[in-house]
TrEMBL record:
Organism: Streptomyces bohaiensis
Coiled coil: none
4-aspartylphosphate: residues bearing it: 55
A Pfam family matched in the record: GerE
Domain Response regulatory: residue ranges: 4-122
PROSITE patterns for this protein: HTH_LUXR_1, HTH_LUXR_2, RESPONSE_REGULATORY
Name of the protein in question: Response regulator transcription factor
InterPro entries reported for this sequence: CheY-like_superfamily, NreC/VraR/RcsB-like_REC, Sig_transdc_resp-reg_C-effctor, Sig_transdc_resp-reg_receiver, Tscrpt_reg_LuxR_C, WalR-like
Superkingdom to which the source organism belongs: Bacteria
Transmembrane residue ranges: none
HTH luxR-type domain boundaries: 152-217
Length: 225
């Protein structure tokens, strides 16, 4: 099946470059472009797609507000948002993860990384590496971010001991296969625990599980390993 992609960036030249790259792949195609968040939401409501590459900094409605609008719309529940960021400068991309983005990608990423990101997002996984997401959250929480969230802590209380172990490994940036090896269980068992975690914590994906692990106090900045 072909993965459909929406490009959202206020720089037309960058959108054009992304379009050429994406359309060069036999398993994906660009179905639309938008120069700001409002336009992106309008385009999606007319024609939902699989993956949105969303710039975080745009005039008018930025990528965070647009992501929040997309993930709040039940008709767009299947749309996956990948935030495009300059990594080190955009610590507030954590707000986009809270808003429902499945992860983030640096604008300096190479063509192969961008294409892989689209495929990973379309498959329902978090981007790009859980450890990169963890590092961003650590910087946020170690600075001016809030302390442990009572709501997140309440969600944590519903987990079994094994589910807590799996969540802790997710926050450490480990893949399902790595978790299976560390806990001496099968990858299928880990996947089952992951599905239960997503349901119990009302999380969209792995990135939001990492957020919950930090916001609940299960993992503290600088102590994830």
């Amino acid at each position: 099946m072909t993965t459909t992609v929406l490009l959202v960036d206020d720089q037309a030249l960058l959108r054009s470059a992304f379009r050429v790259l994406v359309d060069s792949e036999p398993d994906m195609t660009v179905v639309g472009e938008a120069a700001d968040g409002d336009a992106a939401v309008r385009v999606l409501r007319q024609r939902p797609c699989d993956v949105v590459l969303m710039d975080i900094r745009m005039p008018g409605t930025d990528g965070i507000a647009a992501t929040r609008a997309i993930t709040a719309d039940p008709a767009l529940a299947a749309v996956r948002v990948v935030i495009l960021t300059t990594f080190e400068q955009d610590d507030y991309v954590v707000e986009a993860l809270r808003a429902g983005a499945c992860g983030f990608l640096g604008k300096s990423a190479g063509p192969d990384e961008l294409l892989t990101a689209i495929r990973v997002a379309a498959a329902g996984e978090a981007l790009l590496s859980p450890s990169a997401t963890r590092g961003l959250i650590e910087r946020f929480l170690a600075g001016d971010g809030p302390g442990p969230s009572p709501q997140a802590a309440a969600g944590l209380a519903t987990l079994t001991a094994r589910e807590r172990e799996v969540l802790l490994e997710v926050a450490r940036g480990r893949s399902n296969d790595e978790i299976a090896l560390r806990l001496h269980v099968s990858p299928l068992t880990v996947k089952t625990h992951m599905n239960r975690l997503l349901a119990k914590l009302a999380a969209r994906d792995r990135a939001q599980l990492v957020m919950t692990a930090y916001e609940s106090g299960l993992v503290r900045p600088g102590r994830a390993d």
